[in-house]
């Protein structure tokens, strides 16, 4: 289920989960539990560095906001025991925040937070590892939408990426784990978080490329890739858009979050192959997941 790919420039990725047939919302569930939260590191100096790094960054930029994020803590994949049974993925999510993300995954010392292990969740148990999301969007005229990141953004300025961001705990009323311990409340919140996984990627596409939500198909989940550099995980989805690429180019000029990128490209599969060489590792992994989906059709 896991695959590691090396890239010439050192931006490696690992496919944590590949679902080339694509999974609908009914085939993806979530277990949201504090058991999947980050485990503090035993080195107190390393732990203290998280606060120190955050304080330094806040002094440099007063606009930084310590928002909550879902933390990736693994999955269970049930392929089904008979041909009539659909495969099903259960994602394990905890809570983390932007402060801890900056102090662990984005820290210059990020490798010191890792545990030597072949098990991905054990290896990353001390990192924030917020679960990002990305969408491979195919237009009516069979083009794939790719953004070029602004030179003003903190990570990978100028690189090519798929539209995406993060599912947001606050969208489903989650601030902490408190209040969700009862069985019926756990079931309710797990269902809401699962829906947020799919709702959030539609929001990101609408905000970043400007296409209206009613022009987009229901997303299908195609897997999770992880950037080897600072072990950042991202869930990827495939979405069809019923607009032509030239129509989307016009809409992009007034996209809500257009400031995060400088240009929108609508490219063929062969062009996408070439652009993948200048994608962050996690998005290269998204391209690899998309290729597996296409090859399986």
What does this structure look like?
The protein is α+β, with helices and mostly antiparallel strands. The N terminus is likely disordered. The strands form 3 sheets. It has a 6-stranded mixed β-sheet, with helices on both faces. The protein is built from 7 helices and 12 strands. A hairpin with a 4-residue loop joins strand 10 and strand 11. The longest helix has 27 residues. Helix content is 29%, strand content 27%. The two termini are 19 Å apart. Its cofactor is Mg(2+). This is Nudix hydrolase 9. Keywords: Hydrolase, Magnesium, Metal-binding. GO terms for molecular function: hydrolase activity. It comes from Datura stramonium.
Short description:
The protein has helices spanning 44-60, 98-103, 120-123, 183-209, 245-252, 269-275, 281-296, and strands at 3-5, 13-23, 28-32, 68-78, 88-97, 132-138, 144-149, 160-161, 164-165, 220-227, 232-240, 261-267. The chain is of the alpha+beta class.
Question: Main traits of this protein?
Answer:
3-stranded mixed β-sheet, 7 helices, single chain, 297 residues, 12 strands, disordered N terminus, globular, alpha+beta, 6-stranded mixed β-sheet
């Amino acid at each position: 289920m896991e695959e590691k790919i090396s890239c010439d420039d050192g931006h490696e990725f690992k496919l944590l989960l590949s679902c080339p047939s694509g999974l609908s919302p009914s085939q993806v569930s979530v277990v949201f539990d504090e058991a999947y939260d980050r485990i503090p590191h035993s080195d107190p100096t390393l732990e203290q560095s998280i606060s120190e790094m955050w304080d330094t960054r806040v002094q440099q930029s007063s606009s930084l906001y310590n928002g909550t994020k879902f933390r990736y803590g693994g999955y269970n994949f049930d392929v089904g025991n008979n041909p009539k049974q659909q495969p099903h993925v259960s994602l394990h999510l905890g809570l983390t925040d932007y402060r801890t993300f900056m102090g662990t995954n984005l820290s210059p010392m990020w490798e010191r937070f890792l545990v030597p292990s072949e098990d991905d969740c054990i290896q990353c148990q001390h990192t924030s590892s917020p679960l990002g999301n990305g969408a491979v969007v195919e237009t009516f005229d069979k083009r794939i939408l790719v953004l070029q990141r602004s030179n003003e953004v903190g990570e990978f300025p100028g690189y090519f990426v798929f539209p995406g961001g993060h599912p947001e705990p606050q969208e489903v009323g989650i601030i902490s784990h408190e209040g969700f311990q009862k069985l019926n409340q756990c079931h309710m919140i797990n269902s809401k978080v699962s829906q947020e996984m799919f709702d959030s990627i539609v929001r990101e596409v609408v905000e970043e490329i400007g296409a209206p939500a009613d022009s987009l198909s229901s997303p299908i989940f195609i897997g999770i890739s992880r950037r080897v550099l600072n072990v950042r995980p991202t869930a990827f989805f495939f979405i069809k858009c019923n607009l032509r690429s030239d129509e989307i180019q016009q809409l992009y000029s007034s996209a809500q979050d257009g400031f995060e990128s400088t240009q929108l490209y609508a490219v063929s599969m062969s062009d996408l192959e070439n652009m993948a060489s200048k994608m962050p590792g996690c998005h290269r992994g998204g391209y690899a997941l998309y290729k597996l989906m296409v090859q399986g059709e």
